Amino acid sequence: MEEQPLSDSEIHAHSAPIRRVTTNQLGKMKRKGQPIAALTAYDALIARIFDDAGIDVILVGDSLGNVVQGHETTIPVTLDDIIYHTRAVNRGVRRALVVADMPFMSYQVSPEEAFRNAGRLMKEAGAGAVKIEGGKRVADAVGRMTEAGIPVMGHLGLTPQSIYQFGTYRVRGKETNEAENILADAKLLEEAGAFAIVLEKIPAELAARVTASVEIPTIGIGAGARCDGQILVYADMLGLSVDFRPRFVRLYDSLYGRVTDAAKRYADDVRLRNFPNDDESY
Fold first, then answer.
1. How many domains does the chain have?
2. Quick one: which of 37, 71, 118, 266 is 20 to 30 A from 29 by CA?
């Protein structure tokens, strides 16, 4: 059958520029009740796949310390690590908002140092925004960054960079005092200029209260369904992580077994001289 030419509308659809997701757009999504889909990524290949799938926000998380570098915590991740991986992710993204995590000790010393380091993530890595853990103690840094035009995403509840202070990865905000502090911190982050807040591993009812108390979007991870969006570490969601299966992760695939099987079959073919065959040779 002879191929038919594209119609004018189809030509326009193929040539129309892809609009990048912005922080302003995320705010509109909250107001319209449209859930925000977010995932982590650390390289161009995975970022492109998620971008093509329509993921709204891609976080270059300091979770790369666990997923990519093999550390037990996120503490060893450096600012240069985040810059490197954010550059890579940006090369694979056309639509999603790319948010770069500010790693441990890149913002805790002073608001001015936090501002300088966030500036590096924007200028050198091309991040569309940065993420910072904490509430009251980082509010001045958030204010300094947002005043200069750097979009900041907050992070409350379980904050992995504070693991040695907490001593455990248990649910945060179950006690009344801690719950009230999380609520107060969310409002402080909003007042400081944050455009969104990640809520990690807190009771669903508390996350719903926080979501209703602020006008900026909340992105949940282990925080129930009533946040304005959800985020997962991609390796967990795809079943690539074998030693980490928290309750809040839904497996959308089981790639560890599938990839392991493919690698074994490849190794068998190589050892039996079944690969490459004549058609795969020059």
1. 2
2. 118
